[in-house]
Amino acid sequence: xxKRLGSLLVAVGAVWLAAISSAAAAETTLxxxxxxxxxxxxxxxxxxxxxxNGAGPDGTTAIMWAASNDDPDLxxxxxxxxxxxxxxxxxxxxxxxxxxxxxxxxxxxxLLKAGADPNTKNPEGETPLxxxxxxxxxxxxxxxxxxxxxINAKEDFGGQSAVMWAAAQGQAEMVxxxxxxxxxxxxxxxxxxxxxxxxxxxxxKDMNKGGFTPLLYAAxxxxxxxxxxxxxxGADPDLEDPDRITPLTMALLNLHxxxxxxxxxAGADVDKWDFFGxxxxxxxxxxxxxxxxxxxxxxxxxxxxxxxxLDVAKMLLEAGANPNLQLKxxxxxxxxxxxxxxDTILAQGATPLLRAARAGDAPLVDLxxxxxxxxxxxxxxxxxxxxxxxxxxxxxxxxxGRNRTNEGVLATMRLLLDAxxxINARMVTExxxxxxxxxxxxxxxxxxxxxxxxxxxSASAVPHQTALHGAAxxxxxxxxxxxxxxxxxxxxxxxxxxxxxxxxxxxxxxGVKQPTREPFADTVSLLESLMxxxxxxxxxxx
Length: 542
Description:
By secondary structure, this protein is an all-alpha fold. Among the domains are: about 25-115, Ankyrin repeat-containing domain (Serine Threonine Protein Phosphatase 5, Tetratricopeptide repeat), CATH 1.25.40; about 465-540, Serine Threonine Protein Phosphatase 5, Tetratricopeptide repeat. Helix content is about 45%, strand content about 0%. The chain has helices at about 1-35, 40-45, 60-70, 70-80, 95-100, 105-115, 130-135, 140-145, 160-170, 170-180, 215-220, 225-230, 245-255, 255-265, 280-290, 310-320, 335-340, 350-360, 360-370, 385-390, 405-420, 440-450, 465-475, 475-485, 500-505, 520-535. The longest helix is centred in the N-terminal third of the chain and has 34 residues, at about 1-35.
């Protein structure tokens, strides 16, 4: 009897397990058929009693797949069969989210009518409206707003709203629509106050702080039409990010010159400088000659705008920009592999004119001089625009001026001298002492590190050097000849007692793979002949 009862229980259990397995298989088949867009199979399985809320391994249900496949008829059939429109899978997505991605208004209408929450969020806090906004589906956004979607809701990580998503993706029509519906066009994302990091190098550690507005996103992407709609709706053209970068400066940083031109026309402040002291005019000068190809190329895409950086500089000056604003700190690296450790003179005190002169950008130098740029205004180290052009601190890792031409530099120096540049002006350093080595540079950084940045001379900065010293040390023979012909003091000595000839010979100049650099024979020969012609005794520093 006990044996027969045991057999009966086993049989019943087998039947029960088979039923469960059959139902699970049916649900899995239902989800699979929905994923494949096989409406007939889905309908057949529903007619046989398949659970409309059965889910796949990741929690995705048939109605989510139907929404993703833009099949409103199947969505309605699943709803009629009892599908729960509010379910989410393991990734936090819902059927409404899937419909918002593709902008299917028939599916959205069906889901909302069945009770889908227009403000449902994924794990990051993104709502269907944000999804529709970044995808550019205006009609989908309209349906969601009509059903109560919060137009100014923000996702949880970056605090970005729907209009920010739209601007960041360059969706101009979506920006226009959301602005017209009351989106906060001056909303700001989350500002991240990163804990200060201590590093061994005397430089700031800059990290993305967020805090962007819709207009800053539009500027980053170069969406001029987005900006038009935002400003028409009341966006502040000068609202800045945590580093005081305005939409105008942001556009120039990203080589969006047409956007920058529009911002000037829209009344943006043309002199508002950022945390580092970069004014819009300085930025225009900087991006005018970035190396974008060849040796030393930076990871930037050359602008294809019809408006050039020089055009923007002209617009800025005509709008009243001050050509003599100076950097307050050394700017952050633009491209770490190429930018790191070079361009040491482009730090505190550098002006747009000094930056343009460094690159031999004669057209921009001419423009700046005609609009009142001070020709002898030095940086904190005492570097003047003429010195920058001649080659002072023009090391092996420079990026600004890397692809400059002799013709451009000679034209630049001619313009500067004609404007009254002091050909024998001399460098200084913070301490006014002799050459600053790496150890004292680090010590100065440690002593003055009260914020994100400190200003110290480069390791090669030597007081009392002139433009001629800079040209000779780099073997720029054509520049040496030009300077000598225009009155440069051939016997001027730096703080280490070296003349331009000494530097051309490599005396006291470190080499790359040897203690001292090899002489520049042509430069040495030229200087020796020039000095001999003037009766200057040829002697070398100890």
